Structure to design on (318 residues):
């Protein structure tokens, strides 16, 4: 997979994460968990904008975000919201690792560190540390 | 309070170990990279030195967990040993010739290879709390190192595996730190 193809894949995951965190923020208790969710949403928005610029710089056109995303399970309470956040972050960590592998060395370290940020958020939401991020 | 610390250690380590079961079910899509033209780890492999470097570092982490297990009581010691197996999986994944556990490729193997985790314990007689602090520091250092090491890989699949070893280390450090804060 080329760098631009990987970047488009991560962009899709990031758009989904922004949407997912809207659901998460609505379901977790107000206070620190909601603040964490909103902070994560803002962080993913920043990544999204950077990815769109990167895809453009690579000579391609970033695809538009979907109007809505369907979670893989019903998000009906705080527990399912946290599970969704952990799942989204785990998948993104794996996708960022793929992008890092496709990238030139200069960008690879930065992408790897971004993957690590996602991986640590998996712990934040689930309390577990997957051995291989993105494997589920 | 030693008893309290031990109980918390158990919880901290259990958090990580519980994720270990997922290793056997790794089905992630394979990477994106260009095919390796040479035998991975073989004499012609341009990444040979990098593979050896990362493998040795992962083996040291496995040994560190084994040493930590010696200063932790009971079940937490058992679990610390299990956590160390994560690093054995990463070690094997960067050196496929000694048994690969790369996600989306070969099946898991807990056996130590030629550069396996049989090193002598890295921790002297320390408390459980100190052992935990050492583990957090080691995982944090490993995460940073893997991010920079990945940039040196010429093989994209190797780069991906090293990046994932880094995400695993970062997550382990976060999980250990979270447990310590409780």
């Amino acid at each position: 997979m080329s760098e631009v193809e990987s970047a488009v894949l991560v962009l899709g995951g990031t758009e989904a994460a922004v949407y997912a965190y809207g659901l998460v923020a609505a379901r977790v208790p107000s206070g620190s968990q909601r603040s964490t969710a909103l902070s994560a949403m803002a962080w993913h928005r920043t990544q999204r904008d950077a990815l769109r610029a990167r895809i453009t710089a690579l000579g391609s056109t970033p695809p538009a975000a979907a109007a809505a995303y369907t979670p893989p399970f019903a998000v009906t309470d705080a527990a399912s919201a946290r599970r969704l956040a952990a799942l989204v972050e785990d998948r993104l960590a794996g996708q960022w690792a793929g992008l890092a592998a496709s990238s030139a060395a200069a960008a690879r370290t930065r992408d790897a560190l971004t993957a690590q940020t996602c991986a640590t958020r998996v712990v934040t939401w689930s309390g577990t540390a997957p051995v291989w991020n993105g494997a589920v | 309070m030693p008893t309290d610390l031990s109980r918390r250690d158990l919880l901290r380590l259990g958090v990580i170990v519980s994720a270990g079961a997922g290793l056997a079910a790794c089905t992630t899509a394979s990477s994106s990279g260009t095919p390796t033209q040479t035998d991975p780890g073989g004499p012609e492999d341009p990444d040979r030195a990098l593979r050896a470097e990362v493998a040795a570092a992962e083996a040291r982490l496995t040994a560190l967990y084994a040493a930590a297990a010696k200063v932790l009581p009971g079940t937490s010691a058992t679990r610390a040993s299990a956590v160390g197996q994560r690093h054995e999986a990463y070690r094997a994944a960067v050196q496929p010739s000694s048994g690969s556990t790369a996600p989306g490729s070969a099946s898991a193997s807990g056996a130590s290879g030629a550069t396996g985790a049989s090193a002598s314990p890295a921790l002297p007689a320390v408390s459980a709390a100190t052992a935990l602090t050492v583990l957090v520091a080691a995982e944090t250092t490993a995460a940073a190192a893997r991010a920079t090491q990945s940039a040196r890989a010429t093989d994209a699949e190797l780069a991906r595996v090293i990046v994932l070893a880094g995400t695993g280390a970062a997550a382990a450090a976060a999980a250990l730190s979270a447990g310590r804060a409780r």
Q: What stands out?
A: Residues 5 and 23 of chain B are 29 Å apart (CA to CA). Chain B touches chain A at residues 15-16, 18-20, 22-23, 25-29, 31-33, 86, 89, 103-104, 143, 146-148, 150-152, 156-157, 159-160, 162-164, 166-168, 170-175, 178 (CB under 8 Å).
